């Protein structure tokens, strides 16, 4: 079943919502993204950049208005049957652990739910009973001894334990990819590291791929192999973690990085204003109204300020070498003359 191509891919994905006032919000405005097998990919960006919409679209929970999501090179089918088969292979861990667990369900029941839904409750491929599968998943998620938690209810668990139960529910199906949306943002700093270490262990011990959605570049630095930086519905920079975080190309990435405490930097760059509403995506480079390279005269000096304001950039292919969707970057890479 293994092929050489990426496990999961987004090609030119657009997702539009019509707001109550009748405006069209382009939450995703042309995203190319490739998720290799067995790697940790971080999708980073400020709140409102489209990360959750992208994660939901990759999961088949939201349908692209145009463009495609491909799994093993085939377009995702949204039929119930196809979705069920897909869910076994790609699982999502949601943002809010406390809100995602049913308060009336024991830990055992919530982990067994997926196993039953996929008809694995009699036995799985390895001939394990339902209880053995639940115990194994809890234990892999770091809840040991697992039997002690079987009959607990969510209100009896700490935030970190709840997040581990959710991860166990995903692991129970032995997926090839786990998509985690802000997996630690609601947790205390003290347990964040443990949950991140757990996500890393999934890749190391079980060979699973992980897509982690986060607004926190420090987190991406700690666990990701590759990073896609999003701004207002597009990927604006893509590369290995090393490339993106030690030699960022996009002024947006540079600004985000400049305020990450874990990473050494010079002057913090304060971004002016807020991320615009996706019903009003700026013309030209979508980042130009907030771009520090325009404020400090760099783009003027390079003779590209008009381009920044008026010329849109092509969709960034989020695969292969390190790149950024930025007129300045293009000008620096290929100086005129
Ligand atoms: N169902 C929806 N209806 C209208 N707008 C939406 C909907 N979902 C998301 N959006 C808008 O799309 C943009 C991206 O949202 P989201 O994907 O949640 O970003 P992020 O996860 O990066 O914070 C936001 O401006 C948000 O308001
Ligand atoms: Mg989000």
Keywords:
single chain, 337 residues, alpha/beta, seven-stranded mixed beta sheet, four-stranded antiparallel beta sheet, 11 strands, 34% helix, elongated, binds adenosine-5'-diphosphate, binds magnesium ion
Give the SSE order as H and E letters: EEEHEEHEHHHHEHEHEEHHHHHEH
- Give Rg in angstroms: 21 Å
How many runs of DSSP E, i.e. beta strands? 11
Class by helix and strand content? alpha/beta
Helix content: 25-40%
CATH class: Alpha Beta
Report the sheet-strand fraction: 15-25%
Tell me the span between the first and last alpha carbons.
50 Å
Main β-sheet: number of strands, strand sense, barrel status?
Answer: 7 strands, mixed
- pLDDT averaged over residues: 92
Question: Which helices and strands appear, and what pairs or packs with what?
Answer:
Layout: E1 8-18, E2 24-35, E3 40-44, H1 51-58, E4 66-71, E5 74-75, H2 80-89, E6 90-93, H3 97-100, H4 107-117, H5 130-140, H6 159-171, E7 177-181, H7 189-206, E8 209-214, H8 217-223, E9 226-231, E10 234-240, H9 241-246, H10 251-257, H11 292-295, H12 298-301, H13 305-310, E11 323-324, H14 327-333
Parallel strand pairs: 3-8, 3-9, 6-7, 7-8
Antiparallel strand pairs: 1-2, 1-4, 4-5, 9-10, 10-11
Helix pairs in contact: 4-5, 4-6, 5-6
This protein binds adenosine-5'-diphosphate (ADP) and magnesium ion.
Summarize the model shown:
The protein is of the alpha/beta class and 337 residues long.
